[in-house]
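Appendix C reproduces, verbatim, an entry submitted by the partner laboratory led by Prof. M.T., so that reviewers can inspect both the input and the predicted structure.
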Amino acid sequence: MSLSSIIRLTIFTGLSAFLFSCETQKEDFQTEALKDYLPLINGKYITYRVDSTVFTNFGRTTEIHRYQEKHVVDAQVTDNLGRPAYRVFRYINDSTASGAWVPSGSYMVVPQDLQYEVIEDNLRVIKLHSPIKQDFSWKGNSFLANNPYDAMYNFSNDDNMEDWDFYYDNLGGSESYRGNNYTDVTTVEEADESYNVPIVDVNAYAARSRSVEKYSKTIGLVFRQFELWEYQPNTGGSGGPYKTGFGVTMWMVGHN
């Protein structure tokens, strides 16, 4: 075989291997569409039961407020960066939804090719990111400032929230919560840190940071748990120990 033939064969073999490698990479990055897990259709709604934990009486009393929320996709708008977005209205009712639905604010969902952002109370969070595959991670709070809840709560849970690693877990599984069953569910783990919880040593500091969301294919968000609170023993001060922060657990009870 001549030298030129050997060179041509080497080039052909290398090019074939390169093209095969590229094709393999394309296959590896095939993923389900983000829109399947957060559908944005005018008039679509999801109803949730909500347990909201608040600390009253200067943080010395723990109360759980129970109610229902309905989230309704209203219309396509633009966000403050001029990007296409969808406005979602929130309505509130009692825990059995036997009263009237009362307006309770709104938020925006910004769908993009690689990520879906939610903007609420001037906080922008990347809720979903492509590709949807087990353990894929991203900085979901990368747009948040340091201590984003500083104006409302005097705690350290929100320190460096921008560094939280969101990641996918339990893709396409089945979930059940309080008698409600959900299928084709993908979990987004966001934070799970506890110190001295449950509080065994009442004379020691305690804290809980828990954030997780579950999305059902073709439906949307079906479960959310978001807790940020800390406990101060206040051993040297008056009034005794106290807690500061909040907790929200919400789960889907209906949709169209």
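The helical segments are 3-28. Additional entries are available on request from the coordinating office.
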